[in-house]
């Protein structure tokens, strides 16, 4: 019986081969995710409770300032429910971007010691973000009881909302990794981009606050589609828009293309971390 040998070179793999390697190393996604979760909440008083406290704090601030002070409303949906359903999607998106973009640098010691497809790292951040997202969903329980709101049957599309959300986060991660592994200016710009991005996404404001002639700008933002899709999925808020499907596949294709070029460059990552 012959022993199979794996030959590792600096030459980029074909994309199909690369995908097969990711599947072969898929267990590392869970290993890295569990490790990072333990490190993240180690020696903290609240532990994993921080995953709930952060969206609660944002919910209180946005609901008070925009809902109470400015008297904004969300029509048929209570304003705190509207804000929370937007925050959950946005927080998942921003977590993937922040943590996924820095995952190569954070794992520099591991990268220099062992071989594995580097896409494993941002994928592990998606898993952690998903854990925090699911914990945040428990915030809906007391709020829905308070406002006597029931969840829509559209909840069956919940997995597609998560996938759309995750792809929107992974796409900039791959793009940033391609261009920033040598020059890290993008890492300094990233907080500004994400901070301003929420003002172009209907997390705490509704579409009707913008003039109709600018509504197309909102539809060009995939995260607008994601947030709207979340609300439609959970509460049947708004109407299903075919643009969601179009943008889903656009983001998916761009994400695959970004991953392809990420594969072409990843052999050089260890030289710059």
Structure commentary:
With about 270 residues, the protein is mainly α. It has one domain. It is built from 13 helices and no strands. Helix 3 (about 50-70) packs across helix 4. The longest helix has 24 residues, at about 240-265. The protein is globular. The mean pLDDT is about 80.
Question: Which secondary structure elements does this structure contain, and how are they paired or packed?
Answer:
Layout: H1 15-24, H2 27-41, H3 50-69, H4 79-101, H5 103-106, H6 108-113, H7 120-137, H8 140-147, H9 158-180, H10 185-197, H11 215-220, H12 222-235, H13 242-265
* H/E series: HHHHHHHHHHHHH
Low-pLDDT stretches: none
Beta strand count: 0
Structural class: mainly alpha
Average pLDDT confidence is: 82
Rg: 20 Å
Helix coverage percent of residues?
55-70%
Euclidean distance between termini CA atoms: 40 Å
Q: What is the percentage of strand-forming residues?
A: under 5%
Shape: globular
- Biggest sheet layout: none
The tally of helices reads 13
The number of domains is 1
